[in-house]
Amino acid sequence: MNPLVSIIVPFCNEEKYIADAIGSLLNQTYRNIEIILVNDHSTDNSREVCLSFTDPRVKYYEKFDIPNGRAYSRNFGIEKSTGELITFLDADDTCSNDRIELQVNKIMELGISNTMCGCWVQREGLQNSLMRMPVKHEDIVKGFFRQYNRTTIVGATIMAHRDIFIKYRYKTKFKFYEDWDLLVRLGESGEIRFVNVDKPLYTYMIRIKGTKFQQDWLDYNIFMRDCQSRRFRNLAEFESPEEMFTQLKKHDRLRYAAYRLFEKLIELKRFLRI
Length: 274
Description:
By secondary structure, the protein is an alpha/beta fold. The protein contains ten helices and nine strands.
């Protein structure tokens, strides 16, 4: 069995890096792929870079009539894809040439209909380190329910059957953490078997202090956790961090204070890593 794999690459103003990302996919040892490039309101020359690739497996789309954001882009790419399996690559990252082959092999071994496969991640650039994550399902799922050291599978690396992504779409109310929200919901469903390939197949390039040091990233971190908590308590989720903080400040000041304190602790923890 040789299933078609759709690799979705959303991008916004990545003219400097996206050629390397596409090149790393065209060099895959697993050849039955399609590369879905989703232009998310770019204003630079990313479009021209993408259109310079003539390989028929590269498919270029623009979504200027759809709101910007990674959740919208990933859902859009999933809709445009035709592969039985779907995975992702951030436009400023690359992956090893055996990434797709090894992940497909693992999914075929464990069951194509209900397996989600990630891999270890190599950080390069401003920080050089290897992210070794657990391999077994039970250990991966544990991370979804911890307050710290939660990352047991990386959202950009996941590969799974198309039907899973159709059933559990990325929630567009998330500006950040849309991938982690998806993983947590999949873990809660009990329908998915998680696994990581214990090799660094994905290279995450750390170039500058990006969105993870901004206030809105911290707000969405708390927002994602609150959504998870409210599902456990059978309560309706808020639609935005702004709504969450406003309502909690009015009606649940203890939880509001706890979230703000937790936010400060995350900020301090990241600051001390610099």
